[in-house]
Amino acid sequence: MEETIIAYRFDRLEETLSQLNKANCAIVAGGTDVMVMHKSRRGVPPKITKPIIFIDHLLELKQVNQNGNDLHIGACCTYSELLRDPLIPMPLKKAIKTIAAPAIRNRGTLGGNICNASPAGDTLPLLYVYNAKLLLRSVNGDRIVPICEFIQGVRRVQREPNEILTEIILPSVLEEGAHVVFEKVGNRNADAIAKVGFAGYIRTKGAVIEDVRFAFGAVGPTMIRSNEIEKKLLGKTIPVTDMDIAKVVAAFDKIIKPIDDQRSTAIYRKTVALNLLRYFLTNSTHIQHI
Amino acid sequence: MIKFNLNGRKIETDAPPTARLLDVIREDFTLIGTKEGCGEGECGACSVFVNNLLQNSCLIPIGSIDGAEVVTIEGIMESDQFKILDESYSEAGGVQCGYCIPGMVMASAALLSQNPHPSEDEIREGISGNLCRCTGYNMIVEAINMAAKKGDGLWKKQ
Ligand SMILES: Cc1cc2nc3c(=O)[nH]c(=O)nc-3n(C[C@H](O)[C@H](O)[C@H](O)COP(=O)(O)OP(=O)(O)OC[C@H]3O[C@@H](n4cnc5c(N)ncnc54)[C@H](O)[C@@H]3O)c2cc1C
Ligand code: FES
Ligand code: FES
């Protein structure tokens, strides 16, 4: 006997939230991770044990707007939609362009990349350096959590079963003097899962570093970022000296602990990660001040 | 009952909401031009248009596309654009075993309708989600290039 599969697709976010509050459901946005994860034999629908709730059509989750300095991105915006949106910062577009191929980008969502919490999620290093905040909504109201607290480990996020990630907030994306980069090293362009992802952020006033942030992807269970190491560079002037660069690189050398897997070796990953960091510190701090 | 539009016809199906669009179009509607390669979004053999966007039908639970417009390779075969692609693929020698071709043609049509004069890099990017085990891609790239030229003026969305 076939079991009946329960699936919901409401017109409004509100109804969706009240259903989520009644029963624990599997949220499906673009489904590009969910469908692969639950794949069955050919011709057999994927096995998802919980009732399913589709959210990718909800207009409330597809808006992008600038609110003062903050950019609010609806969790169910697809990658293709974000690539077309003039408000999305260039480095984020660059990261998105490295994701899969056009057909996947027409379905996969930014919210899905975050909630899936893969160590190789390509938007994550940048979202970490942007200090992204996540707006989670339930029938009980809203809460805002920094992305680094929300993502707790491989495929582990701090979401209550009745909550939906509704918005990704990038604070102060328009700050003057800020320079942001994203780099991904993978096998080939399309459909390549990152071997190493890197995002760097630097903001200077005159020649003085006011803020600097680094995040590494695919070299640990979650993104690697260290406020402590970043602090070492605050107040220094650019270009950063070779000695300071060496210190920062050595500090990350201690905390980056990648693994071997079928895509790459630990040693290779670490070398690439540290090279990307060194390159960023050498180059970005030069072009900064012209 | 899930309802959507398939190649211009209104259809209904009692397949479960998690059923893959790929299985529904192939098995319930015997539209077998759409192929299954990997079943995981990697190969593009299952490419269709959903609301005019290129998508992998192996990753789409039909419950998520209630009310949508789905177009398969069969749905574009009567169009002038298809005829030009068909000719160009044959002329350029872009078809060997043919398994990847329905998906390639869908990706080609999607690309050209957004970008009627693509550069070689843009062509490669446009078909980057479509794997071909036979041709080594160069002939396919050439076919798309040829179709862009032959069909000049035809590609913009009607
Ligand atoms: C062929 C292929 C290539 C890929 N290449 C890349 C790549 O290069 N880089 C990369 O980073 N990823 C890649 N991916 C992975 C995937 O496409 C992305 O992670 C995508 O962003 C997932 O979004 P989605 O909407 O499809 O998520 P879904 O599969 O719908 O959901 C993923 C998870 O997040 C949860 N979820 C989704 N949205 C919400 C929300 N708003 N609130 C609460 N929970 C939510 C779901 O319950 C599920 O657990 C690839 C996938 C495939 C199939
Ligand atoms: S069968 Fe869908 S992408 Fe390979
Ligand atoms: S022609 Fe054989 S797979 Fe492309």
TrEMBL record, chain A:
One GO molecular-function annotation for this sequence? Answer: FAD binding
Q: Which residues form a coiled coil?
A: none
Task: Supply the alphabetized keyword list.
Answer: FAD, Flavoprotein, Oxidoreductase
The UniProt entry, under SMART domains, shows:
CO_deh_flav_C
What are the FAD-binding PCMH-type domain coordinates in residue numbering? 1-175
PROSITE patterns given for it? FAD_PCMH
Q: What's this protein's name?
A: CO/xanthine dehydrogenase FAD-binding subunit
Organism taxonomic ancestry: Bacteria, Bacillati, Bacillota, Bacilli, Bacillales
From TrEMBL, chain B:
Q: Does the keyword Cell membrane apply?
A: no
Keywords assigned: 2Fe-2S, Iron, Iron-sulfur, Metal-binding, Oxidoreductase
Q: Which Pfam families match?
A: Fer2, Fer2_2
The keyword Signal is assigned to this record: no
**Which GO MF term does the entry hold, naming one?**
metal ion binding
Q: Which SUPFAM superfamilies match?
A: 2Fe-2S ferredoxin-like, CO dehydrogenase ISP C-domain like
* Superkingdom of source: Bacteria
- From the Swiss-Prot or TrEMBL record, give the protein name: Carbon-monoxide dehydrogenase small subunit
Looking at the record, the residues that make up the 2Fe-2S ferredoxin-type domain are 1-76
Which EC numbers characterise this protein's activity in its record?
A: 1.2.7.4
Entries under Gene3D superfamilies matching the protein: 3.10.20.30, [2Fe-2S]-binding domain (1.10.150.120)
Which species is the source of this protein? Answer: Neobacillus niacini
